[in-house]
Structure formats: structure tokens, C-alpha cells
Write a structure and sequence with these properties.
This protein is α/β, with parallel strands linked by helices. It has twelve helices and 16 strands. Helix 2 packs across helix 3, helix 6 crosses helix 12 and helix 9 packs across helix 10. It starts with 11 loop residues before the first helix and ends in a 14-residue tail after the last helix.
């Protein structure tokens, strides 16, 4: 497979055609010419170029039109032309995901790491997990299109600088330049909630939404918080100083919630076993118990959902998005977390604000950020410079 030059598609027309093929999955040259307004000869030349770069494949011939004539050739994206890597960096844990060019996941894994907060060690751990992931997925390094890295905190995505983060006390870390010394691929560094938002747009629950908010819920025995990512008019919104969505929200952690329900633990068919050993409980046990119908576990999720709804409602009123996506581990519980969030939003916001709001969960659960980090590369690769149709060069 030859992919070394696929990053060199600088022509706007070629990028536009490639993105249309991706969006439509199967499309003919005639349809591409009609949509773009380009001449058929121009479309033909672009298709030849994209095929030479191994980015598209011929899918045979379609049906003739009602007027007859030759059957058109159909084109589709070569999903195996290249791969993108996503990395979610957290304290003591690094999650990776590898996607095909069409966004299909072929590998996901969670690696436990040391919690020492040393930047050199963090970079080393990222390097090791990426190399291990590529090896396990049997991906040739020359077929890697790029790597997206997501970090909790304030991130200058333009310059690849992690300005502030909980994984280390150091400020203004030049993450991208440090990783560029380890890898020859394009690198994108982004805040974790923003990465999850891009993932929702490309391979997740918000592919049909132009304006949406994603809430990344961080919840375990010691941590209770949520990050917010904003996509406005189809584009990620960073704010004036990369601080959009940084509301510094504190949710009750799992330990706090469990302690409020301590007297009710005997009612739970699963959690009752932990009545005298609460220190052994973790978020995955509670989520699994809730899925299996444990009443106390479901009470925990209900309490958490109400807190999420209370904290996100003002942002819903301010932005008036069409969709709210809940991401993170608890997103696996779907309606159990959606219902209390919805109730709080309905109580706090105007009817006109929430009447058309769709509250949903990420389809990727604990891998929401890693999938989103990989999607950052797809977002950059398929990005077409914003131009009006009348400005497309017909050639």
C-alpha cells in the first residue's frame, strides 16, 4: 500500500471531491459534477488523481439514467488507504484507538501508567502506548495518516501547547513539539472534551447536528467533574483563549454519592455485597450493577444525572443547541442518565429552549475521547476550505 503522498492533497477541488465521496459512500462522476458545478473532464482528472493515491476505489457501474446512455462508474472511499491514531491521556491511564479512513474502529485499548506527573515520563508513556497499539493492530507505520492526542485541561490547539492540566503541575508544555521528536506523522493536540466533540461529529452521536454541546463526565471514587465541548455552525469553538467550556464544574464523586445511600445498600441485589467494603467499589462495578437492574446503583446514576443537568442547563439556555451529547463511562447507561439530565434542563430552561433539544449519549462509552482524538486527524485531512459553491474553480 502506498500512502506516503496522500497527505499532499492541497487542491481545494480534489479535497471537495474526496469529502463528497466519503459523505455519500457511493457516488458517480456525473453526480459529483452536478453537485460541485465542475466540468466532467475536471472531475475525471481528479478521480484519476485520487485513485492514483489509492484514496478511492472503483465500485463498478451503476444504472443508466431514464434517458439511457452509458452506465456510470461508481466510486467509493478506500477505507484501508490509511489509518489514524487517537490517544486519550489521563493520570494513570492512556487510552488508544485506531480508525480506518472511513472512521471505522479497528483497535481500542486502555493502558495503565504510572502517576508521577513528570512530563518526560508522560511523553515516553504516550510513545510506548502508540507503538504497542500499532504493533498489536498490525499497522505499518507508513500507513499512518496522523496522530491525535487529547489531554484534560486548557490546550492551545493551534500551537500544540498544553497550557494547564491535572496530569502534571508543569504549565505551557509544548506537547506537539515533544511528540514530533518521536513520530514523523502530523500531530494534533486538543482538550479532551473538544476531542470528544469532534468524535461525536465524525463517528458518533452528532453527525447530523451543526450546533451541539458535549459533556464529558469524569466520575470515579475520587473525581467528579465534567468537561464541555462546543460545536457551533459545524466548527469546534475554542473561545478567545482556548477556555470555552471551562466552567470548572464539580460533581459529587462516586464515594460521596454512595455514602448518601449507605443505609440503602442492602436493597441492592449486587451492591449489598459491598455494604462493609465500600473501598472496593469502583465506577465500573456501579455501572455494571445498574445495567443488571441494581436499584441502589440506579439511584447513584440518577443522582449524578440530576447534578449534570443542573450544571449544564445554563449553557443550554445560552447556546440553544439542537443536541446535547453525554460522553464518558456513564454514557453506556443511556436512558438511565439521559432522563434525570433532561428533567433538570426542562425545569431550569425556557420551554422554547428545550422543546427541540435532543439529549443523547456517546456511542463509544469510555473510548469517546480516544475515538475523538483520532477523528481530529480525519477532520484536518478532509477539511475543505470554506468556500461558496460559486467560488469552486470549474477548470
Amino acid at each position: 500500500m502506498q500512502t506516503g503522498d496522500i497527505r499532499l492533497i492541497k487542491d481545494i477541488n480534489a479535497r471537495l471531491v474526496l469529502d463528497l465521496i466519503r459523505e455519500n459512500k457511493v457516488i458517480s462522476g456525473a453526480e459529483l459534477a452536478k453537485i460541485t458545478g465542475m466540468r466532467p473532464s475536471t472531475i475525471s482528472n481528479i478521480l484519476k488523481e485520487l485513485k492514483a493515491k489509492n484514496l478511492i476505489v472503483n465500485l463498478g457501474k451503476g444504472e443508466s439514467t431514464e434517458k439511457g446512455g452509458k452506465r456510470p462508474y461508481l466510486w467509493g472511499l478506500n477505507q484501508d488507504a490509511a489509518y489514524v491514531v487517537g490517544v486519550d491521556v489521563e493520570l494513570g491511564e492512556i487510552t488508544t484507538a485506531i480508525l480506518k479512513l472511513n472512521g471505522e474502529s479497528i483497535y481500542k485499548n486502555v493502558f495503565k501508567t504510572q502517576k508521577n506527573g513528570d512530563v518526560k515520563e508522560i511523553i515516553k508513556q504516550i510513545e510506548q502506548t502508540i507503538n504497542q497499539s500499532l504493533s498489536k493492530a498490525k499497522i505499518n507505520t507508513k500507513d499512518v495518516l496522523g496522530i491525535g492526542v487529547a489531554v484534560a485541561g486548557v490546550v492551545d490547539a493551534k500551537n500544540g501547547i498544553v497550557m494547564e492540566t491535572d496530569i502534571t503541575q508543569q504549565l505551557n508544555i509544548p506537547f506537539r513539539s515533544l511528540l514530533e521528536k518521536k513520530f514523523p506523522y502530523p500531530l494534533v493536540i486538543e482538550n479532551n472534551a473538544n476531542a470528544a466533540a469532534i468524535g461525536a461529529k465524525w463517528v458518533g452521536s452528532a453527525r447530523d447536528a451543526k450546533n451541539f454541546i458535549i459533556v464529558l463526565v469524569e466520575w470515579d471514587c475520587n473525581v467528579g467533574g465534567m468537561g464541555i465541548g462546543l460545536v457551533l455552525n459545524g466548527e469546534l469553538y475554542h473561545g478567545a483563549n482556548y477556555c470555552a467550556g471551562e466552567l470548572n464544574v464539580h460533581l459529587p464523586n462516586l464515594t460521596t454519592v454512595i455514602n448518601t445511600l449507605r443505609n440503602r445498600l442492602p436493597e441492592g441485589k449486587i451492591l449489598k455485597e459491598y455494604a462493609d467494603k465500600l473501598h472496593q467499589l469502583d465506577v465500573y462495578t456501579v455501572i455494571d450493577a445498574a445495567k443488571k437492574g441494581d436499584s441502589v446503583a440506579r439511584m447513584c446514576i440518577n443522582i449524578l444525572g440530576h447534578h449534570i443537568g443542573q450544571n449544564i442547563a445554563p449553557a443550554i439556555g445560552l447556546i440553544n443547541p439542537e443536541k446535547l451529547v453525554i460522553a464518558g463511562d456513564v454514557s453506556e447507561l443511556e436512558e438511565m442518565v439521559i432522563e434525570p439530565v433532561n428533567k433538570e434542563i426542562e425545569m431550569i430552561t425556557l420551554n422554547l429552549v428545550h422543546s427541540n433539544l435532543e439529549v443523547t449519549t456517546s456511542i463509544h462509552g469510555r473510548y469517546s475521547v480516544a475515538m475523538g482524538a483520532a477523528s481530529l486527524i480525519l477532520n484536518e485531512f478532509f477539511k475543505v476550505v470554506l468556500i461558496k459553491k460559486s467560488e469552486i474553480v470549474p477548470l
